[in-house]
Amino acid sequence: AQRVTQPEKLLSVFKGAPVELKCNYSYSGSPELFWYVQYSRQRLQLLLRHISRESIKGFTADLNKGETSFHLKKPFAQEEDSAMYYCALSGGSNYKLTFGKGTLLTVNP
Amino acid sequence: GAGVSQSPSNKVTEKGKDVELRCDPISGHTALYWYRQSLGQGLEFLIYFQGNSAPDKSGLPSDRFSAERTGGSVSTLTIQRTQQEDSAVYLCASSAQSGAAKDTQYFGPGTRLTVL
Question: What are phi and psi of B25, to 5 degrees?
Answer without folding.
Answer: -75, 170
